Amino acid sequence: MASALVIFSMQTTAFADDEVATALKRKQELARAVQVSRTNAERYKQAASQFEAAIGQANARIGELAVRQANAQNAADALAIEIAIAEEQLQLVAFQLNETNSLLDSLKAQSTQQARQLAEREVLYAKHLRTTYRQAQVSPLEMLLSSGSLSEFTSRVQAMIVINRQDAQLAGEIRSMRELTAGRQELAVAKELEITGLQDQIATQRAAVASKKAEWDAIVRQMQAGINRQSAERQNATTLAGQSRNAQQSAIQETASLNKQLEAAEANYAYLAAQLAARSGLGKFSGTRFSTWPLAGPVTSVFGLRWGGFHNGLDIAGALFTPIVAAAPGKVVTVGRPYAASGDTALVVIIAHGDNLSTLYGHLDDRRPPPVAVGQNVAAGQVIGYIGMTGWTTGPHLHFVIISNSRPVDPRPWLP
Predict the structure, then answer these.
(1) To pair with 134 at 20 to 30 A between CA atoms, which of 155, 175, 270, 394?
(2) Which residues, 6+ apart, have CB-to-CB distance to 386 below 8 Å?
(3) Which of the following CATH numbers is that of domain 63-234: 1.10.3470, 1.10.287, 2.60.120, 1.10.8?
(4) Which CATH architecture has domain 280-414?
(5) Is the pTM higher than 0.85?
(6) 358/67 Cα distance (integer angstroms)
């Protein structure tokens, strides 16, 4: 009879362990899916941030190029005004040059006419000189004796005086005409040279300004091409950022959905853990607080909502191989790898503190196995395992759960 009870008890325990293993396996699969979904969401978030940073850089570059383009355009516009002024100056100088050339042509024509007149006057002056010379060879007495009458003599003397006066006047006019003609020609030539030099100077200046304007126009075109490229890159980054944000939102929604499933699996797991506590043979746990923390370390994740789902315990960080102790006296009801069949090496210890209360210690190290066994009674503060990274975990920590009346509860009010 006693042997039958032992066999029945072993079968019951094995059945319960199978249920726990199945629940833990399902929880582990969901936890992995949650991790993948969270990783995807974070990756999409980082990608979106990178694309948004690229958008910001493109906007800054576009702003910089726009300023440079505006400055170049202003410079080009100013040079265009200078070119217009130079062209007006060239037109004015060309007009002045035409006027000067016309004046020079007029002076040349006048000079030619005056040259003819000068030649005529010089001929006349030469004739007068010859006449004067001949008359100078005749003495006044001879002129008087050769005259037929006194009136003839007087006429001849008066004619000589007139001729002398005309010769003096003609000589002066010839000198004035020569000087005036030469002066006008020199002035016209000097003016022509001045205007030609000014024209060359303005033409050179206009060419230089036009060359500078061409350079600024090229800069304006380059800046516009840069703006167009940056705008295209910004549009592409905007599109990719939107796609990443949409993918991130989808991953967040998927994470929330998986968390809900994980929450349900953890609730079922807690229920099974409670069943093991109920079969522990212990009485009711009547206390309200535990004696000690299972691990001294920072809490990296609290009990409650997390990632759109529900976290059923506390995550307490610590260095690898740090000892983990029982938070209260009780009886070990589970030790080992309940989901090793799925390829997971996570170690879990569950301690019943009464038929209505138990604690779970997850992610224990498998290189330093837990120093406790199923059915063993443990005291508060007794080492029951060591921090590891078995199972689904991003770093060494302890996942600590309290199951009270078949439901996980916040461990913090229970801890000192």
Answers:
(1) 175
(2) 320, 321, 322, 323, 324, 364, 365, 368, 370
(3) 1.10.287
(4) Distorted Sandwich (2.70)
(5) no
(6) 70
